[in-house]
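Lab meeting prep.
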Amino acid sequence: MRLSLAARAAFAALAVAGLVAYAVIVDLGVNAGRVHRGVSVDGVDVGGLSEVEAARLLATRAERIRSGPGVEFALEGRTFTYRIRAADVGWTPAPTETAAAAMAVGRSGGLVRALWDRARATVGGIELTWGATDGRLVTGVLDELAAALDARGVTLDRGRMRYKIRRAFVTGSTRTWRIPVTGS
């Protein structure tokens, strides 16, 4: 028995729809009550954790960052170093809210959006960000750092430094960051 082209196309479409439905059902079962696999918060993998577990992990990380010695920044060749603590820039993480946002990935925005987010998380991952710095405090730190560098004949790239300060705190990095300067 030979099927027509239309019948074969319909059969193929039904097979694909069946596979997609099966994948969605399996995905819903695997991730029930858990942050979808592939979701991370500034480099911290929270996929597979419950919302409470994710919030606890982020709160622990936030406390370590807040109580730590701060982030060290240095000029190329370490001829000058500058340490910034979380309190200096008013870094305020939001572990509970961030965990809730992670849990919402693949569960909000309607059916199409939820399926799209789940697929993106599975294939390439979804990176959320957390915490914020106080712009006025960061400006004060930048002013102080710029003055110290000016005394050494070096000009601070304030925009890039502002970005680096934020990245250093949200990632909880312990490495020494290079101070960006203009003209080099």
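Slide two material, second protein:
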Amino acid sequence: MKTATISLDMVKDSDGWNDLGHSLGFDHEKINKVFEYGEYANLTIEVNENLEIVGGKIHPKEVIE
């Protein structure tokens, strides 16, 4: 099955990214390392020919240790 990848930069979701981080147990400092201002995320999404998301990644703004 064919797949294609798209990169989406600076996707804003003021509450969503912050809530996602809290749901994953991140503290405020780690949320800000992953999401710019706790509001923006850079994503790579892999989609198949049926337009289903089959892979992807959120790219942290800083290296997470």
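Talking points for slide two:
Strands lie at 3-12, 40-48, 53-59.
Residues 16-23 form the longest helix (8 residues).
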